[in-house]
Amino acid sequence: MSRSGDPSDREFVRSLAKGLGVIEAFSASAPSMTLSEVARAARLSPGSAHRVLKTLERLGYVGASDGRYSLMPRTLQLGYAYLSSLPLASLVQPKLSELTQEFDESCSVAMLHARDIIIVARSTAKRLTQDYLAVGSRLPAHATSFGKVLLAALPDRELRHVLAQEPLQRMTPQTICRVPDLLRELARIRKAGWAINDQESIMGLRSIAVPIYLQDRVYAGLGISAEVVRIDRKRMMERFVPALKEASIFLSQVMSARVQG
Questions:
Q1: Between 3.40.50.150, 3.30.450.40, 3.40.50.2000, 3.40.30.10, what CATH number should domain 86-260 receive?
Q2: By mean pLDDT, which of 89-93, 209-213, 229-233 is the weakest?
């Protein structure tokens, strides 16, 4: 279904959907675009894209320079409003900091959005002078340990629908890009209860993740990342998986109690 939604639904606001679709069309690979590029990315006619862009510009969400459009800082308010409303955001940070201090590695929590994961909480290892991820960072789910944990929790019909939408993006030579191969990996993850990303999104970096549950359903992924020169795959599984599973049980219980209370 396109971003315009079902025109027969009287409660569906098409203009709002178009505006959000234009905002979502911008990305790290397309931080600024011409009118025609925006129209193509958002699947709108040039006329509709022009009206949406001018509205967003007047509201302060989009800026224009030399015929190119880009997002303005005000769009951050949309993400921060969402993150601050999550019970997860206020609960996980102490546990992430604890894991980072124990292992001297960066820890994150991510949630699934369509075919991507979005980092919603993060604790960065102090030894890093520059972090490669931040709260709000978005990555293809199939190329991350968080994403694979979350994809593995989807019902089979929903999972196949998500994977069938477009080809899987190759982030590195290690990325699993064939759907049958990914489905086999997800089946293994369901049995093991954890997933590993061995340089599938960034060369030189491994991560390992487990699910966080909220009332018996997988709600988010909790993971630790490390450079390959610091720890090998076997040692990573031996050291991190038990600690991550213990942290996941704690966070799952705290979150469920928060929701029920």
A1: 3.30.450.40
A2: 89-93
